[in-house]
Write a structure and sequence with these properties.
elongated; 237 residues
Length: 237
């Protein structure tokens, strides 16, 4: 029975981590510390040993990937503030043409999410999705899922995002090799996401923004107008 206690403890720790992150307002860092403590104590470590192990593990992981994460955050911020992320999207949309906007958005997400955190990138590019849906009368669900899928895939597979970097640091994997492998493996996933997004558009055809009787706008103008309208809205309270 003693052999199974660490395994059961690990399963409980994973469950607690997932529950705290998904179902409560506990910060992810606190949730990870709680889960790590459960796993350590159930594995036979004392409270002091558990804290010491967590501290050493955190320090060694941060020491091996901290600089790369910092530089990645800086690069992502430059792309975010300079408008380069939107420009990448505009270029792919122009290159691929009409009725292929979901491919353009998925490819944009595939590229942009490498240096920019996925949540920030989605916030930056979602107004473009809304403008595309209004101007081209495309399904908003299709475009949104294609963008989100492209963002999520590379964010979770390609350094310098923290997750892949952490895995590389723990297992001693060469970061360059992991980037190449992640980029390669992400390609079929992006294709699958786009096909799934198209299927969702056919299954739920009503996900379209309300069309107003107004003169057609250039895509960039529609995007800028949407941002202006959003910024002009008063905050609650």
């Amino acid at each position: 029975m003693e052999l199974y206690i660490p395994i059961i403890g690990l399963a409980v720790a994973v469950f607690v981590l997932v529950f705290l992150v998904l179902r409560t307002r506990v910060h992810a860092l606190i949730a990870m510390l709680i889960a790590a403590s459960i796993a350590g104590i159930s594995g036979g470590l004392s409270a002091v040993q558990t804290v010491d192990t967590i501290t050493k593990g955190f320090g060694s992981t941060l020491g091996s990937i901290g600089i790369v994460i910092g530089l990645g955050v800086m690069m992502g911020r430059v792309l975010e503030v300079s408008g380069a992320a939107e420009q990448i999207a505009y270029s792919f949309i122009k290159w691929l043409g009409k009725k292929r906007e979901e491919w353009a958005l998925a490819i944009t997400g595939y590229i942009v999410s490498i240096p920019i955190f996925v949540d920030s990138a989605f916030v930056i590019l979602y107004p473009l999705v809304k403008a595309l849906a209004k101007k081209g009368q495309r399904n908003l669900l299709t475009l949104g899922v294609a963008l989100a899928g492209g963002l999520i895939i590379t964010h979770h597979a390609v350094p310098p995002t923290p997750g892949p970097l952490g895995v590389a640091g723990i297992f001693g994997v060469d970061i360059g090799a992991m980037m190449l492998a992640g980029l390669t493996l992400a390609v079929p996933c992006v294709v699958g996401i786009v096909l799934y997004a198209r299927w969702l558009g056919k299954k739920y055809p009503d996900f379209q923004p309300a069309m107003e009787d107004e003169a057609p706008q250039d895509l960039r103008a529609a995007h800028d107008n949407y941002l202006a309208e959003k910024g002009a809205k008063a905050l609650p309270g």
